[in-house]
Design a protein that fits this description.
It is a single chain. β3 and β4 form a beta hairpin. The protein has a single domain, classed as Beta Polymerase, domain 2, CATH 3.30.460. 28% of the residues are buried. The chain has 149 residues and is an alpha+beta fold. The chain starts with a helix and ends with a helix. α1 packs across α3 and α5 runs antiparallel to α6.
Length: 149
Amino acid sequence: MNSDFRELLLIFAEEKVEYLVVGGYAVIHHGQPRSTKDLDIWLNPTPENRDKVLRSFSRFGLPLMGGVTPEDFENEGLQYAVGVPPTMIDFLTSVPGLSFDDCWKNRVETETENSPVLFLGKADLIAAKTVAGRPQDLADIEELRQLDD
């Protein structure tokens, strides 16, 4: 995980943002090495969390762009990408087929180079990838399930 990603997640921890790392970095965390072009972060879409996210963005030097408003962060369906691959960050306020509250209870907490990181649990990750159903998702599911054997 690059230093900008770690810095943002450290700020999220300090601000007590409710988030989960999903996507490729979650697959890597659960034991399957692979490449990824971005960091996918699922944000809990509540007014309280929105305020924490916006404070974090301000501290990180990340302005809202492209017509995204603060209110967008308290509604499901937001997909807000910043940066360019391989250092792009994709902020999401929903993951099809999953409930943030349920997944929050199953989160996996770890530290990466002294930065706390909250990951989507493995079973929830497999469920999300099953719903997405893209070729990479299906390959990830197969690899994640083999890790259980």
